Amino acid sequence: MHKKLSTPSLRRLRDMMPRYSINYHQALRVAERQASRLARTWEAEHRAIREADISSLTRMTILRRPCPGTSITDCPSGVSRYEQGRWIVWLNPSETTSRQRFTLAHELKHIIDNGAAHTTVYKQLTPPEIEAVCDHFATNLLMSRHAVYHLWGDGLRTPESLAMAFHISVNAMRRRMTALGLPTDLDEPSVLDYTDAFPATPAPDTLPGHFFTEPPNTTFPGVAA
Ligand SMILES: [Zn+2]
Q1: What would the pLDDT profile of 165-177 be if each residue is shown by its tens digit?
Q2: Suppose 66 and one of 42, 75, 116, 158 were both cysteines; which one would form an S-S bond, judging by CB atoms 3.0 to 4.6 Å apart?
Q3: What are the pLDDT digits (tens) for 55-90?
Q4: Distance CA 152, CA 94 (A)
Q5: How many CB atoms are closer than 10 A to CB 170?
Q6: How far, in Å, is the centroid of ligand 1 from the Cα of 2?
């Protein structure tokens, strides 16, 4: 019998972090555990994770405009900052919807880490490694191992069909499938109409064609960390 998990609080997610200094690989594993926990809570095997899911975890305002001190031509993908009792997350509005969603998930990891004594825990990590940990979290949240295998088992076996289900670009889905050891070249029809179960996104850019190159996802030192 499937038992619905309750959404963990931010504190609970922070408690999943060790209290001691960890290395890069340990940090990746913690990030994956936190993301998987959220993905299971939000039943990512049945629906794409929404922006509202992410913003429900804490008081959060999402602004699609350049963060203070930058312009549309030089603003980073995302910045988060705690101000007057709430998190403000700036997302670069010139990037695709799917990229902005990935950036929001990345920023969520910064927010979780912010309350987890990260200066001690991440002492061994370089800033690019911390960014990579946040990317790893975002990947595991939006395309969790459990959910990808689940949908694969249900017959979604092409990057295109899985990308549609997860509201992710085909290129990103292909990379994820490869990382999870799934073939990406099966010439197999996906289950017809299956993806109708997933609500359409307002923007069509989660589908083939353009997508993001791998981050670095720039953040301002001391601001988003
Ligand atoms: Zn970052």
Answers
A1: 999 989 899 999 9
A2: 75
A3: 999 999 999 999 888 998 889 999 999 999 999 999
A4: 32
A5: 20
A6: 35
- The three-point CA angle 108-96-169 to 5° equals 85
Report the separation in Å between the CA atom of 126 and the middle of ligand 1, taken as the mean of its atom positions: 12
Query: Phi then psi for 5, rounded to 5 degrees?
Result: -85, 145
Please state the domain extents for the chain: 10-48+96-197
Q: With a threshold of 0.90, does the pTM exceed it?
A: no
> Per-residue pLDDT averaged across 102-119, rounded?
89
| Ligand 1 ion local residues (Cβ < 5 A) | 131, 134, 217, 219
Residue type, 4: K
Please give the structure tokens belonging to residue 135.
């990317």
Rounded Cα–Cα distance for residues 73 and 156 (Å): 38
Which tokens hold the place of 99?
Answer: 């990229």
